[in-house]
Write a structure and sequence with these properties.
This protein folds into two domains: about 190 residues, AMP nucleoside phosphorylase, N-terminal domain (amp nucleosidase, domain 1, 2-Layer Sandwich); about 280 residues, Nucleoside phosphorylase domain (Rossmann fold, 3-Layer(aba) Sandwich), CATH 3.40.50. Helices cover about 30% and strands about 20% of the residues. The protein is built from twelve helices and 17 strands. The strands form three sheets. Strands 2-6-4-5-7 form a five-stranded mixed β-sheet. Helix 6 crosses helix 11 and helix 7 packs parallel to helix 10.
Amino acid sequence: MSVTHTASGGQPSRPVECAPAFATEPFSDAGKAVKRLIEIFEANTAFLRAAFQDLLNGKAFDGRVRAFYPQVFVTTDSHVRLDSRLSYGFVSGPGVHATTITRPDLYRSYLEAQIALLIKNHGVPVLVGDSDMPIPLHFAFYDGTHVEGGAAAARLRLPLADIFDLPDLSVMDDAIANGTHEPVNGVMPLASFTAPRIDYSLHRLQHYTATAAEHFQNYVLFTNYQFYIDEFCRMSYELLADPGNGYEAFVEPGNLLTRAGDTAPVSGEAPAKLPQMPAYHLKREGHGGITMVNIGVGPSNAKTITDHIAVLRPHAWLMLGHCAGLRNSQTLGDYVLAHGYVREDNVLDQDLPTWVPIPALAEVQVALEDAVAEITGYDGYELKRVMRTGTVASIDNRNWELWNQKSLVRRFSQSRAIALDMESATIAANGFRFRVPYGTLLCVSDKPLHGELKLPGMATDFYKRQVAQHLEIGLRALEKLRGMPSDRLHSRKLRSFAETAFQ
């Protein structure tokens, strides 16, 4: 049975050599279902890699070569589910629900958990087999491996697209996550992302961060300053030296991997220069560690990296950055815990209209507030000495200070904003869009409306004083979130009335 829609490509008059087909089989054991997904995916991608190597070795191809993604689907005829307390793990109603799968080796534990819930909640087996979604040649090579298409085409004097399926943007959009997806032949999606959409992001992650997707952890920190990364590296090595913390390794750009107990990397190669958004991973068993990414400045970068990390289905991401304090009562070094956002970043307007509210998530807010209290030593009413909770405005113009001041003050007053930055609303909004729990803790680094501009000397002193404490708070908050059951952390606030079953 084939229930996914077919990607376009190729000339129908030319013969097509397909990878050996896998029959669709039912599974009532999630582990065995994922094992079959791995078997199909590895066989089909190996088929494409072998054909490409044959091409490089001079073999002539009269037609096309094609292999298909595996898929998992389930058919139900009832609205009943076993556990109504969960916000995921069940389909929205009777019918056929399906998703194509890529890199089941990478997603093994995730897939086992999601499929097990599906079987348990509906009391029916899942079916696993070939889909009719072709695997693009480029995605048959993992972790950013470069496909020498030019060399191959030169041998044949034919475009590579005449032989292999290439990436097709029409099947890798975000319609499912955005809530605008129209089912094909009545088949409803099981997951927010198709296999080609996931593959696209896995390859982009390698490009942007210079680390393989397998190293990313389920708890993510974003920052826009390299000195936060420097401090994270220092803290990570300290944590790695203490076996009681449970951290197993630290990975830096170039996949430089240092294991607990080692004094130097045991694998990887440092890049000649840092990538656009370098990532660092403090690894723990089951991807339970912490990843930190320097996203650079601006909402475009914030959207780009969260678009891609979202396909890894992390349990939470937090923004730790600096902001302009908008209240005269604030002082440099104060913290701002965002409980609302004014979205003037503009990069998500087509995906998530600005009229959609971005709610504060109680579990994340409590974890951040408790972490601030524990690290600073303040509690209760005294915590207001160093932290304000309020609305953060994010805009896409770094030189907003040059706008009409009266207009700015009026807008900030009407919105009740207490801080301004360029990334926080984007990260929160994309968390909402992709059902990834999110939060924001900023640090006031300047007060332009009150004559305290960010100047070089002042900035240096400020950064030295605050970075370590701010980062320590972020790490403590993520450790608190890690201690929560995942079904509690993945809030109902992030899910609509017609959702995919997979978290």
